[in-house]
Structure formats: C-alpha cells, structure tokens
Amino acid sequence: MTLWxxxxxxxxxxxxxxxxxxxxxxxxxxxxxxxxxxxxxxxxLSSRRIGVNPEAVDMHIAENxxxxxxxxxxxxxxxxxxxAKGVVVISTRGxxxxxxxxxxxxxxxxxxxxxxxxxxxxxxxxxxxxxxxRRFADTLDRVLxxxxxxxxxxxxxxxxxx
Length: 162
What we know:
Elements: E1 2-6, H1 12-25, E2 28-33, E3 45-49, H2 56-64, E4 70-72, H3 76-84, E5 88-90, E6 96-97, H4 102-117, H5 130-148
Parallel strand pairs: 1-2, 1-4, 2-3, 4-5
Antiparallel strand pairs: 5-6
C-alpha cells in the first residue's frame, strides 16, 4: 500500500499529519507536485516533481495509484477516476470519497465549473480551519486502521478458499 498526496495545494497541517502517520506506521508516502516539496529524511517519504502542465500531477497519480492505495486530493475528477479503480480517496478536509458519493460530488463540481465558465461568480472554497485538520486526521486514522488490519488466515479447505 502506498499513500499518494496531490501536494500542490495540500495544506501544511495535512502534510505534517501524513508525515507523522508514515513514520509511525511505516507506510510509503509519495508527494506529487508541480513544485519542489521539502520533506524530512525518511525511507518512507518521497516526492516527485512533475512537469508544469496543470493536469500532470493528476495524470501521474491516476496512472500509478493501485487498488488498495490511498490518495489525498481535493481534485474531484481525479477522485472519481481513482474511486473507480478501487483506490481509497480522502479530501484534505477529511471527506472520504466512495462509489456512493463521488457521482454527486462530481455533478456539483461540474455544475459550479459550468457557472464559472459562463461568467458566473461562485464562492471559492472556504478557508481551511482547525476542524478540517481534525476531521482529516480522524478519517486518515480510520482508513489506515482498516487497511493495515491483519487479514484473518483461512484454514485450508474452509469455505471461500480455493
């Protein structure tokens, strides 16, 4: 399992939470961005600086994240692509995207984008607050606990085992 971070617009508090989790749980984390991302020395942390094309980071993550990986992103179209691949996706505000909610989130995003494209003025995202950081930490902890939980070993010949 790898934890991928769409790092271009990732708040510093979220980056720090991810770094602490990587060290504590010994999981691989890859920060992907269009700019340099400074990271502390750790065999569990790496960064990839991708070209200046605004979509390059999203394309890199979409191509490399595998089912069972975790991705942290605010990008709804990227989240939609990843959820369809079986990747666990968490927003930087702690929202867990799923097959049940990603369609609605993508529709709302596309509607708002359509308004902006036609000259409409829409409110930007609300300011990142301390409660967003707590919600993210709680969601990440739940997801990591579930994914890192040892799977029960099926005895040979038991149902569900071929």
